[in-house]
Amino acid sequence: MVRPLSLALLAPAVAASVSNIHISQLATTIAINLPPNNNDINFYMTAPTYYSWVGLGFGAQMANSLMLMAYPASDGKHVTISPRLATGDTEPQFDRNYRVRLDGNSSVDGSYMVVSGTCINCRSWAGGSLNSYTNGQPMMYALGPSTASGTSRIASNDQGVTLQKHTAYGRFLLSTIQATGYGGTGVLTSINNQVNTGTQPVNTYGANSPNGVVLGDHDTLGLAHGITMAVVALVLAPVDVILGSGRLLAGFPLIHAICSLFYLFLMIAGLGTGIKASAEYVVTQHFATAHQVLGFIAFFLGLLLLGLGIALQVGRALSSVGERGIVAVAHRWGIRFLWLLVLIDGGIGLQLADASLSLIIGYIVFAGASFLAVVSVLACLFCIGGRRSGTRDERNSAGIVDGGGGGLFNTNVRKSVNSRKTSGDSEPVILPDNRQPSARYE
């Protein structure tokens, strides 16, 4: 709950120079001081280390706003601050044109992260500016996902490190008039976390988000993409490999076709959600990461294999030997290669998404088990197919051959051509095998 109260703990002269807000649902405090006669902004943020990052934004919406993003440094004790510009509902991008100086109070101490410093010449930026003479300056705050949600903990000195989508955020109005004057970061860090002054919440999110705070906000597009492609890689693809392998299962082309179409449909769904999710992050907006490149290759390979499959079925309908041609070999091995490509790309995608180590290990275990299971099934099918082929050869050598093209429907049995002999218009005489007719029939 956000409560506007007086800053009773501070002297009146100092209180007039501070504007702050405390969000009890998030155990987070934000404070601002605007020193007179310059364009600097003194800021203070404290948030639980349960959240991977904390951010303060100047503006009513992300588009064209300046944001200060803070997260633990690589040593886990200090803090990295990153000034970023947001161009839309996407991850803000680090802009080195804005300089931020942290003071000695900034640190990761136990279960809290404290960020205190000055953003130099930050009252105007590309696309917007801070109104220094209003009681209703729009502001935003956001908190990154926790490690409990499966996101890897951030510990980096890189100001441009990729940040996952916030799990909680909100908007409020700030009194820049009250924040202007003497104060500095030393005064800001002395604020009691339970006191608010000069602010009011802005509830634009509906009745389910009291006080303008949104909790439980997640990267639904990325989650949908991951689940869809996991089903493809670990379920549909291996089944399709088995159905499309060898002549033993060639009698079930309809099942293979249905599975392949569903396989391709989910790949299209995964590609669509992946493209949409990619637009939300700086590192993926140009579609140049290894995961994205391999994903596009896999998709177009899937289309090519679909075309080969259709050509193969047409060839089998027109010729009894179509299933043994080069098209069949290319289709069969292409399906297997596509599956391996999708499996590998899934692991790369988890790394790109900063998934937890346990999730990555779990995927590797399931992928390895799936691969071994499919190899075992294919080996069994190969052995069974070899035995049937050997039996058929034995039957042929005994003088019993299949009729028609592939022998699929023809069950006629014919005697050896050497076992019959005719003379003129007389009825053929059946002779025992390996016997020659007498001279009178010559």
Which terms would index this structure?
single chain, 442 residues, alpha+beta, Immunoglobulin-like, 2 domains, elongated, disordered N terminus, membrane, Cellobiose_DH-like_cyt, DOMON domain-containing protein
Task: Describe the fold and architecture.
Residues 409-421 have a biased composition (Polar residues). The chain crosses the membrane at residues 223-243, 250-273, 293-312, 333-353, 359-385. Residues 26-144 form the DOMON domain. Keywords: Membrane, Signal, Transmembrane, Transmembrane helix. With 442 residues, the chain is α+β, with helices and mostly antiparallel strands. It has 2 domains: 15-215, Sandwich (Immunoglobulin-like), CATH 2.60.40; 220-384, no CATH class. It is built from 8 helices and 18 strands. Strands 4, 5, 6, 7, 13, 14, 15 and 16 form an 8-stranded antiparallel beta sheet that branches. Strands 1, 2, 3, 8, 9 and 10 form a 6-stranded antiparallel beta sheet that branches. It has a two-stranded antiparallel ribbon with strand order 11-12. Strand 11 (124-125) and strand 12 form a beta hairpin. The radius of gyration is 36 Å and the shape is elongated. Mean pLDDT is 78; it is low at 1-16, 400-426 and 434-442.
